[in-house]
Amino acid sequence: MQKDKLNFAQKIGAKMTRNAWIGVSAAGMLIVFVLGVNVGNGSIPMAWSRGSAQNGSLPTTLDYSTVNQVYQAVKDNYDGKLTEQQLLDGLKSGLAQATGDPYTEYFNTKDAKAFNNQLQGTFSGIGAELGQDSDKNLVVIAPISGFPADKAGLRAQDIITSINGKSTSGMSVDEAVNLIRGKKGTKVELKVVRNKSDALTFTITRADIKVPSVNSKILDDDLGYMQITQFSDDTASLASKAAQNFKDKDVKGVILDLRDDPGGLLDAAVKVSSLWLPQNKLILQEKTDGKVVNTYKADGSNTLAGIPTVVLVNSGSASAAEITAGALRDNNVASILGEKSYGKGSVQQIMNLSGGAEIKVTVARWYRPNGQNIDKKGITPDKTVKMTDDDYAKGNDPQKDAAISQLLGE
């Protein structure tokens, strides 16, 4: 299997891989791999390979002579206490950062554990997914509905400029997450810029957060409403149960709410898309170096086939959420309403390292059934309906209202 926060931007050996990750930080293959790290002899043997020829000119092993020169200079001259593990973690992080790709990241043992907890919908903090925009600003990908960040008023695309008074300039997403996380009941102060002009300050009380990834109900108008907050381990089973309930209640239509969904596991996106699609309908293709390496098709569990559907998206809808929206739209089983989505068109593979550490590497780009890659472009809705500041303040939801009207033919 594989993993994608496209961004779960921050959810954070030899073992089996998990699902491909397509969040703003996922189907099908079960791959066993080993990433050995042997700093002692100056080599990093890679026993796992996806087969890309783009970096074939790089040497089999790296020459660490100059790295050791830097190490000696730091060891002999740095005015401060350092540990061997701290330096090794820094070296590994540096290799990942050298790609210049914000989604290729090294997680030490502690961060890897936190990442895995987040994939299961369990973590402690404020309840928001973070990422970087094209200018390397730290941004809110999506506040999680009903939790501290959302209740405080944080919104998708808010740029975080400082955390507890510390500037985020040059700060990695991983560093920011570590600063924002903390014990339940403690507070964190975030300064943000909204709409590139409004400077705001939020003091948010941290909480323990356990989030089921799917919420569903039958609306008064006999419409099914399914909200997916992230594509995680429980998404496929919860979405399947909701879909069967909708079918049993003979709903007139379905609203699939993917707003502020930062992404997650690729196999979950494929299984959710399959609830609407006939067997073998194309959901997405992965390409590495321009060549197709994986093709994902519907599995035939099309419980909601033929039921009119509207998918809601906004700027916080990313990766796995965009895969699902694009697959349903391109196969003409749903229309999209709301605002342009985030635009993450890459896939990350999680590789397990010795001692419980992990590295997340961008291994491919994904393409919609219509052949488009949406990276940094997003998906433009069939019908654009915006949420204003006044709507947020008053608790209005014109996007959901518009979806209901469309499904009822009003």
Tally of DSSP β-strands: 19
Spans of at least 5 consecutive residues whose pLDDT stays below 50 are 1-18, 25-48
CATH topology tier name of one domain = 2-enoyl-CoA Hydratase, Chain A, domain 1
Distance between the termini: 44 Å
State the CATH class of one domain.
Answer: Alpha Beta
General form:
globular
The major beta sheet can be summarized as: 6 strands, mixed
Write out the strand line-up for the largest beta sheet, numbering strands in chain order.
Answer: 10-11-12-15-16-19
Cα gyration radius (Å): 22 Å
Mean pLDDT, nearest integer?
85
Helix content: 10-25%
CATH architectural designation of one domain: Alpha-Beta Complex
Q: What is the ordering of alpha helices and beta strands?
A: HHEHEEEHEEHEEEEEHEHEEEHEEEEHH
Oligomer: single chain
Description:
The protein is α+β, with helices and mostly antiparallel strands and 410 residues long. Among the domains are: 122-209, PDZ domain (Pdz3 Domain, Roll), CATH 2.30.42; 212-349 and 365-407, Alpha-Beta Complex (2-enoyl-CoA Hydratase, Chain A, domain 1), CATH 3.90.226.10. The protein contains ten helices and 19 strands. It has helices at 65-77, 84-97, 109-119, 148-152, 173-180, 235-248, 266-274, 320-330, 389-394, 398-407; strands spanning 105-107, 122-125, 128-132, 138-143, 159-163, 166-167, 187-194, 198-205, 207-210, 214-218, 223-228, 253-257, 282-288, 291-297, 309-313, 335-338, 346-352, 358-367, 383-384. A hairpin with a 3-residue loop joins β7 and β8. α6 runs parallel beside α7. The protein starts with 64 loop residues before the first helix and ends with a helix.
